[in-house]
Amino acid sequence: MPLSKRFTLTQYLIGERRRFPDASGDFNALILDVALACKAIARAVAFGELGGVLGNHDADVGGSVNVQGETQKKLDVLSNEYFVRLNQWGGHLAGMASEEMEDPSQIPAGNPRGKYLLVFDPLDGSSNIDVNVSVGSIFSILRAPQEVVDSGRDVLEADFFQPGASQAAAGYALYGPTTMLVLSVGNGVAGFTLDPNLGEFMLTHPNLQIPVETQEFAINASNSRFWEAPVTRYVDECLAGKTGPRGKDFNMRWIASMVAEAHRILMRGGVFLYPRDNKDASKPGRLRLLYEANPIGFIMEQAGGRASTGRQPMLGVQPTSLHQRIGLVFGSKNEVERIERYHAEPVRMDSETPLFAERSLFRD
Ligand code: AHG
Ligand code: MN
Ligand code: MN
Predict the structure, then answer these.
(1) Which residue among 52, 217, 318, 356 sits deepest, i.e. has the most Cβ atoms within 10 Å of its Cβ?
(2) Binding site membership of 256 for ligand 1 (Cβ less than 6 Å)
(3) Among the three residues 173, 205, 237, which one is the final residue of a domain in this structure?
């Protein structure tokens, strides 16, 4: 095999660290631990039925549900274990939080504690596991509050309540036809492809940029009767195509693995919406702020795209709970800005639009 001229993930991280001569190396070591967890999950996913990893967790005792009230797949639980086990030893973390754990996970007594917090969705799109469609892992790295680092105390939920703009790094791994790791350490976005022979992530997609214009959107249309008026307006205009106000035809995609939609959008542009809707008043959106919307939002913005609730930039939202849900719109900048404009516009009084269609008088 000819020796690859490409950089490995480790080399990329060393190159990034050279910009900060005082850096301790903890941050890079942490990202390599995360990458190792992703490689372990990629192997488990690849064995599928052969590895006995498909289906629901604890199916023989009626199944288990996570804090979200969702049925856990075997691979949800296994992936969570890989993340916890491979990241609690290195001494870089003060604590962790995950979609699959109700409370923050503490670093075991006897292990050194560090200055970062790791938040993750160990397996995103897990409804797709049993049908062999791409799934992925999403992670966000925050700085632990100084008082936590100084005291070495256990982490509390509130220690994680930091707006997305303060993430030190974020990324995802995608377990698709190839396994990829996409990462931002706050200096653009780089994509790495797993070389299955070497077991190394190789830099294949340096400096990713999202096209600002697009003709592709992604939304679960089965929820359309619950949408708010600005979302209905946006989708109607896309569907109207060349003969409508947009004057061009749009294509539609829905994988139901947000991480895979994010990757498609990063590669060729597009817009993704899982907006706040009226389906269930107790759930302001489907996706979770801390381990889905914020890390994907960080990647989008670092690649020249945009992420929003529809009403405000996603990365400015102040979290108030660990498993908080939120309406999410991300992708090509011009489309996301258009959707934000539709949310901000006052009620339209023209003959086509009923008086209260744009915004109900009773909502912000
Ligand atoms: P998770 O598997 O981590 O619970 O997340 C699934 C999410 C997301 O990946 C996807 O975009 C969305 O749920 C799909 O929702 P629908 O089932 O409404 O299509
Ligand atoms: Mn998810
Ligand atoms: Mn998940």
Answers:
(1) 217
(2) yes
(3) 205
In the chain, which stretches have pLDDT less than 70? 1-3, 347-364
279 shares a domain with 134: no
121 close to ligand 1 (CB < 6 Angstrom) = yes
| 179 domain residue, yes or no | yes
- Which atom of ligand 1 approaches the CA of 123 most closely? 3
117 and 262 assigned to the same domain: no
**What does the pLDDT read at residue 64?**
86
Domain identity same for 31 and 143: yes
> Ligand 1, residues 73, 258, 288: which to mutate, most atoms within 8 A of Cβ?
258
> Shortest CA distance to 186 belongs to which of 23, 355, 364?
23
Closest Cα to atom 6 of ligand 1: 125
Residue 184 CA to residue 167 CA, distance in Å, equals 10
- How many angstroms separate the alpha carbon of residue 42 from the centre of ligand 3? 15
> Which residue owns the Cα nearest ligand 1 atom 11?
258
Q: What is the pLDDT of residue 11?
A: 96
C-alpha closest to that of 76 among 51, 110, 99: 99
Ligand 3 center–CA 350 separation, angstroms:
43
Q: Are residues 25 and 170 in the same domain?
A: yes
pLDDT of residue 361: 42
CATH of the domain at 150: 3.30.540.10
pLDDT of residue 348: 64
What domain count does the chain have? 2
At residue 208, the pLDDT reads: 98
Tens digit of each residue's pLDDT (9 = 90 or more) over 133-181: 999 999 999 999 999 999 999 999 999 999 999 999 999 999 999 999 9
Q: How many CB atoms are closer than 10 A to CB 225?
A: 10
pLDDT at residue 364, as a whole number? 43
Shared-domain flag, residues 91 and 239: no
Same domain assignment for residues 220 and 285: yes
187-191: long-range contacts, CB 8 A cutoff, minimum separation 24: 187/16, 187/19, 187/302, 188/302, 188/303, 189/266, 189/299, 189/302, 189/303, 190/12, 191/266
Residue where a domain stops, chosen among 205, 224, 256: 205
